[in-house]
Amino acid sequence: MYKCALVLAAGQGTRMKSKLPKVLHKVCGKSMVNHVIDTLRKVNIDDVNVIIGTGAELVRESTEDKKVSYSLQEETLGTGHAVICAKEFLKGKKGIVAIANGDAPLIEPETLENVINSHINEKNYGTIITSIIEDSTGYGRIVRNNEGNVESIVEHKDCNEEQLEIKEINAGMYIFDIEELLQALDKLSNNNSQKEYYLTDVIEIMAKKGLKVGSVVAPFEETLGVNSRVQLAEVESIMRKKINERHLVNGVTIIDPSNTYIGRDVKIENDVIIYPGCILEGNTIISEDCVILQNSRIVDSFIGKGTEVQSSVILQSKVGENTHVGPFAYIRPESIIGDDVKIGDFVEIKKSTIGNGTKVSHLTYVGDAEVGKNVNFGCGTVTVNYDGNKKHLTKIGDNAFVGCNTNLVAPVEVEEGAYIAAGSTITTTVPSDALAVARAKQVNIKNWVSRRGLYHKK
C-alpha cells in the first residue's frame, strides 16, 4: 500500500520569542522537524510533504537533504487549512497519509508503525493517535459511538458535563485514507469563533458519512508538542533520558546520564565508558571499548575500538583504534587519524591524514597534510599551509622525525626517515635519510644589553 505523510511546519511559534521558525529549534542536537521526518522514514513512508509558512526558506534549507517536497501555507488559518494547502500533493494518490506535527519530535517509530498497521488491519478510513491522562483540561476529548469507534473530537471549551469527564484526548496526529480525506477537506468550514479550518472536523465529517474512524492510544509524553522554550527544555529532557537509557540497556556505561548529551542518531557499541559533560551529535559512531572522558564533543565522526578521547573536540572525522586524543585537542572536519596514534594536548588537526603509530604530542598545528606512519612531531610544530591566497599540501613520509618548533612551509615534502632539527623553517624537500637544519647561525654580541641600559645589576 502506498504511504505518504504531511508534516505541519508552518506555525509561527510566537511564544518561542525567536527569529527562528519554531520547528527549527533543536532537541538533542537536531531540529524538531527533522526528528519528525526521520521517524516517518523509519516506518517506510514513501513520500513526505512539508507544509511551510513562517520562515519558509529557512525550513527548506534545514530539510533540503531529506528528499521531501513542500506545500506553502501563506496564511495560518488552522490545521485544516494547512492540509488544504497540500491538496496538490495528495491529488491523484491512492493509499494512506500520515499527518504529523513538526513540533512534536518525541513520537517513536514503533508507535507510528503500530498506528499505521492498526489503520490498515481495522479497515479504518481515519485513525487518530490519542492519549489517556488524568487531567485532560484544555485538550480535545475523544467522543465514541456505541460501537466504540470515534465519532468526533470536542474541544474543551465546547464539552458538556459528561464530555468533560473523558480522559482520552486528541494527540494531534492522524492516519487517513487519501481519497476520503480529500473529499472531507472540501466540506471543511471556518464557521467558528476563530474563523479557522480545523482538521479535527474531518473526523466528524467521516463519521457522519458512515466511515469507520478508529484510534490508537500512545504514551502521552510521545505526543508532546513544543510551543515555548519551557516546553522545548521539557522535551529535550525526555528525549535525552530515553536515548541514554537505551544505550545503558545496550551495554554502555554512562557515568552521569543527567549530564551526558547524546543525539538520537548516535551509535555506541558495548563496553564504551562515557564521562560527564560529553556531547555526542549527528551520525557519530563510537566503537567498543572506547573511553570518552569528561567534556568532549564529537560530531558526525567515527571513533575506532579502544580509543580514548579526553576533553577534546572531534568534528566530521575518523579516528582509528587504540588512539589517544587530548586533552584539549581539536580535530577539524575531513581528518583521518590512524591506529595507535597520539594526538596530545593543544594539538589542532585540520583536513589531514595521520598514519598509524604517529605521535603529535603537544602544541602543534597540522593542516592540509598527509602524514605517514610512526612520525614524531616535536612541540610547537606548524604546517604553514596558507600563503594568503591558497591552501597547500605538506607531505611527511613514514618514520620521519620533526624537531620542536619547526615550520613546514607548504607545498613541501619530508621524505621517509628524514630528520629535521629543532627550530628549522623548511621550504624545500627534505630527502630520505637526511638531516635538515634550517636556522640562522647564532651570534653573541658581548655587553649589548648593558650598553643600552636595559639591565642593571643590583
Automatic annotation (TrEMBL):
Protein name: Bifunctional protein GlmU
Nucleotidyl transferase domain segment(s): 5-216
A cellular component term, taken from the record's GO annotations: cytoplasm
EC top class, as a word: transferase
SUPFAM superfamilies attached to this UniProt entry: Nucleotide-diphospho-sugar transferases, Trimeric LpxA-like enzymes
Cited Pfam families: GMPPB_C (PF25087), Hexapep (PF00132), NTP_transferase (PF00483)
Keyword tags: Acyltransferase, Cell shape, Cell wall biogenesis/degradation, Cytoplasm, Magnesium, Metal-binding, Multifunctional enzyme, Nucleotidyltransferase, Peptidoglycan synthesis, Repeat, Transferase
Residues that coordinate or bind UDP-N-acetyl-alpha-D-glucosamine: 8-11, 22, 73, 78-79, 140, 155, 170, 227, 332, 350, 365, 376
Main location as per UniProt: cytoplasm
GO biological process, one term: UDP-N-acetylglucosamine biosynthetic process
Cellular localization per UniProt: Cytoplasm
Gene giving rise to this polypeptide: glmU
Organism listed in the record: Clostridium bornimense
All residue ranges annotated as the Mannose-1-phosphate guanyltransferase C-terminal domain in the record: 265-343
Superkingdom field: Bacteria
Matches recorded under HAMAP family: GlmU (MF_01631)
